[in-house]
Amino acid sequence: QQQLQESGPGLVKPSETLSLTCTVSGGSISSRSYYWGWIRQPPGKGLEWIGSIHYSGSTYYNPSVKSGVTISVDTSKNQISLKLSSVTAADTAVYYCARVGTAMAWHYWGQGTLVTVSS
Amino acid sequence: QSVLTQPPSVSGAPGQRVIISCTGSSSNIGAGYDVHWYQQLPGTAPKLLIYGNTNRPSGVPDRFSGSKSGTSASLAITGLQAEDEADYYCQSYDSSLAALFGGGTKLTVL
Q1: With 80 as the cut, is the pLDDT of residue A32 above it?
Q2: Cβ distance B104 to B4 under 8 Å?
Q3: Using CA atoms, how far apart are residues A39 and A112, in angstroms rounded to an integer?
């Protein structure tokens, strides 16, 4: 049973870069052909997919999210990272790390981490 | 505005059956992409409820069932229980492998 744990600053200033890390335990992120991703949820609103990455490095991003999104993997640390540049208050959300499984559904989720964008 | 459309809310009394719809288009659900459903209890992360249109992960009661037809999908919950009160989201993909979520449906158990 894989476990995912997000970590990073809970407060980011406007125009700065939001950086989060997802640490995976219970198996290597490169042991199978899985896709990993980030999904966010603004307070009181629905889920929004940010992007996905295959351990090989192939990435897919939501065109509706600003262009300054970067998702990467560090297989040596068993981590997936998210960087979102030039953030605004609209980027305030709970950010979830998740893993795709059978039928490309998001089977595994982290507990989520709240990031507030405010000066 | 979500690409997948769900009713904002549904309600039902304990023991009753409710259905939550998810309407897409020929670019996503209608193109053959599977639909998945997630349950989000207050203050918690979403949990996979149905995958591949009709399949339940281990541990999900058979009171929950999914179906798909054309450009739409549905989640049915029978024998409603107070613990089912939560937000429910459908999810699918489009041809660019973008993950699409519905806007979510709040289920109230009366």
Answers
A1: no
A2: no
A3: 9
H/E element holding B89?
strand B86-93
Q: Are strands A11-12 and A113-117 parallel, antiparallel or unpaired?
A: parallel
Say if the Cβ atoms of A110 and B36 lie within 8 Å: no
Region of A115 please: left (phi>0), alpha (psi -120 to 50) or beta. Answer: beta
Q: Is A118 on the interface with B (CB under 8 A)?
A: no
| Confidence class for position A2, pLDDT limits 50, 70, 90 | confident
Mark yes or no for CB contact A46/B102 under 8 Å: yes
Give residues with Cβ within 8 angstroms of B40, minimum separation 6. B46, B47, B86, B87, B88, B89, B104
Distances (CA, A) of B19 to A16, A42, B73: 43, 26, 10
pLDDT reported for residue A99: 95
Is there a contact between B45 and A111 if contact means CB atoms under 8 Å apart? yes
Burial B59-84 (b: 16+ CB within 10 A, else e): ebeeebbbebeebbbbbebeebeeeb
> In angstroms, what separates the C-alpha of A20 from chain B's closest C-alpha?
17
> Would you say the C-alpha torsion A99, A101, A63, A95 has a positive or negative sign?
negative
Asked if B42 reaches chain A (Cβ–Cβ under 8 Å), the answer is no
